[in-house]
Write a structure and sequence with these properties.
The chain has a three-stranded mixed sheet with strand order 1-2-3, covered by helices on one side. Helices cover about 25% and strands about 25% of the residues.
C-alpha cells in the first residue's frame, strides 16, 4: 500500500513525507523501524523523510531522512 504505484503516494505532489502514526510504546517504534528497513531503497529515495509518531502526545522520531 505504501510503495504500490497506485498506493499512498500515487497522486502526491511536492515533498513526500511518510508519517507512521499511533506509535505509542517502544514495541510500536520497533515495528515502525522494521517497516522502514523492509522498504525498497528505490522507493525511499523518492521520500524526503519517514517519521514515526503519535499526534495525541505530540511526539515523533525521524526514522529516515534523505
Amino acid at each position: 500500500m505504501i510503495e504500490h504505484p497506485e498506493g499512498l503516494f500515487a497522486k502526491a505532489r511536492g515533498e513526500k513525507i511518510l508519517y507512521i502514526n499511533h506509535v505509542e510504546v517502544t514495541r510500536d517504534l520497533e515495528l515502525a523501524k522494521q517497516i522502514v528497513q523492509k522498504m525498497n531503497p528505490m522507493f525511499k529515495r523518492q521520500l524526503k523523510k519517514i517519521i514515526a509518531g503519535n499526534t495525541f502526545s505530540n511526539r515523533g522520531w525521524i526514522l529516515w531522512e534523505k
